[in-house]
Amino acid sequence: LRGSKSFTAALPGETERNGHGLGYKSVSVGHLEAPPLSPSRLSLGRASSTATSTAAPEQGRPRDYLVLAIFSCFCPVWPINIVGLVFSIMSRNSGQQGDTDGARRLGRMARLLSIVSIVLGTIIIVLYISLSVR
Fold first, then answer.
1. Tens digits of per-residue pLDDT, 63-81?
2. Single pTM value for the model
């Protein structure tokens, strides 16, 4: 027979907590005095990256490429550059809230969309000028 790792112990004030009027509670060996969970761990949403990035050295604020995204809005590829601007703003908001991983990811997407918009816009402008000169 194997012995169980749980036992019954009398904990002070437990009669008020368990509602049964019994002064005993069955607990496991590893769970006697567990610290209370912080309020951020009680949420059902995705965990913030600040909890995982505290061990890494501080690298500064991630780039949001807002100037590049605003510059790309002058190119004639409006659906792509507007989405790049939105990603850039979302990256800035994530960085201000402390979510550095999310800010980096959104910043990279904003940079990609802005560069694609500038390249496609330049191609469209060059083609328009070359075809209208004829």
1. 999 999 999 999 999 899 9
2. 0.56
